[in-house]
Amino acid sequence: MRSVRSIFLSDIHLGSRACQAERLLGFLRHHEAENIFLVGDIIDFWAMARRGVFWSRAQNTVVQKILKRARHGVNVVLVPGNHDEALREYCGASFGDIRVANEYVHTAADGRRYLLLHGDEFDVVTKYHRWLALAGDTAYALVVRLNVLLSWARRSLGIPGYWSLSGYAKRKVKSAVSFIFDFEESVLRNVRGRGVDGVICGHIHAAAVRSVDGLAYINCGDWVDSCTAIVEHQDGRMELVHWNHAAELAAAALAAATGPVPMTPRAVATPLPLPEREAA
Question: I need a surface site. Which of 14, 46, 90, 233 has the fewest CB within 10 A?
Answer without folding.
Answer: 90
